[in-house]
Amino acid sequence: MRYFVYFAFIFYSFQSWACDSKIIDQYQSPFGQFEIVNYSDYSLLKIRNRKYFFSKDKKCTFENAKVINMPIKSFALSSATYVYMFTTHNKLNLIKYFLGKNFLWTDQIDLSHLKDFSTEFPYEDFLRDQIGLFIVYSDILNDMKIKKLQNLKIPYIVIDDYLSDEPLQRAEWNIVFGFLIGNYKESLDLYKEITNSYKKIKVSNNKKVNVLIGNFQGAIWNSPGKLSYFGNLVRDAGGELIGTKDQRETVYLSRESFVGLNLKPDVWLTHNFWRSEDEIKRDKNYKVISAERIFNNTAKMSAKNHSNDFWQAGIARPDLMLKEYVEMIGNKEYLGNYWYKRIK
């Protein structure tokens, strides 16, 4: 499905312009994810093979190109992982629409002004409210939706941050969101801070601690692959992810296959809704797992709807996440400052 999205953006290339094209500064992703070039009168954002033009105060027009006017005064968002930079820079008021509003963690932030929407996009509402930019991921797009967005001239860009499996690679998207909300230089400083912090915390240890991540969904065990975001976090915290495979995608195993692995984890990160050890004991599936230390990412999970800041701020700050992983995996004093809590 993603391929047609990429081809749909070929029209973003341009043939001529009527603006000052002197380069002021630029940022090129070392991971090859994106490039930002700021010119005197406009900016160019390249995301993989897609190009987006941003004109300041409607000064620039480009032949055969879609132009997004800056500053962007309102957004529609389709993923909780997009929200962190808006929170960090006190720009939550810019978010007008959110896909699945109930999934947003709101215990310490007010999002009452947000309008909810589903995967059936409210095109007419976007037009009526003059949404400045719709940020969407490719898995919920199709040919019909792209054509309608284009025909109605609703500005949108595609950001598939979930495809970035290295923690610092994922955090680099903070720069793009900072650029879009008008805090570009601050986002560069933040990413530098995250990178330096992550590298200082990262563990180089030949003796690996066995770490299990996952849970049963019915009779099926699911766990992140070793090459996934969480697999790489475990690696950098001095752990060895077990009960999974060398892939980035989620691994699914029948209960019989999982039991047959005879795993002996030192640490188990359950990644479900549990808050106490009693909840583990009530489910007979988990009698086959014996771990010395058990943690879950429910420290900032809402009791009302299970929305979780782990998927908002946690994913955007791998340096803070890695700090927790080192404490949990290294059997150090666990302070529980962020997203996990110890349940055994």
List keywords for this structure.
344 residues, alpha/beta, Rossmann fold, 2 domains, five-stranded mixed sheet, five-stranded parallel sheet, globular
Describe the protein's architecture and organization.
The protein has 344 residues and is an alpha/beta fold. The protein folds into 2 domains: 2-195, Nitrogenase molybdenum iron protein domain (Rossmann fold); 204-342, 3-Layer(aba) Sandwich (Rossmann fold). It is 27% helix and 22% strand. The chain is built from 12 helices and 18 strands. It has helices at 2-8, 84-88, 123-128, 143-151, 167-171, 173-180, 184-201, 229-236, 255-260, 277-281, 313-316, 318-329, and strands at residues 23-28, 34-39, 42-47, 50-56, 67-70, 75-77, 95-99, 115-117, 133-136, 156-158, 209-213, 215-217, 220-223, 239-241, 251-254, 267-269, 293-296, 341-342. A 5-stranded mixed beta sheet has the order 1-2-3-4-5, with no helix packed on it. Strands 8-7-6-9-10 form a 5-stranded parallel beta sheet, with no helix packed on it. Strand 2 (34-39) and strand 3 form a beta hairpin. The protein starts with a helix and ends with a strand. Residues 1-17 have low confidence and may be disordered.
How would you characterize the largest beta sheet?
5 strands, mixed
Q: Taking strands numbered 1, 2, ... along the chain, how are they ordered across the largest sheet?
A: 1-2-3-4-5
Rounded to the nearest angstrom, the distance between the terminal CA atoms is 42 Å
Strand content: 15-25%
- Overall pLDDT confidence: 88
Report helical residue fraction: 25-40%
Number of domains: 2
Taken from the alpha-carbon principal axes, the silhouette is: globular
What is the string of SSEs from the N terminus onward?
HEEEEEEHEEHEHEHHHEEEHEEHEHEHHE
CATH architecture call of the largest domain = 3-Layer(aba) Sandwich
Structural class given helices, strands, pairing?
A: alpha/beta
Query: What is the CATH superfamily classification of the largest domain?
Result: Nitrogenase molybdenum iron protein domain
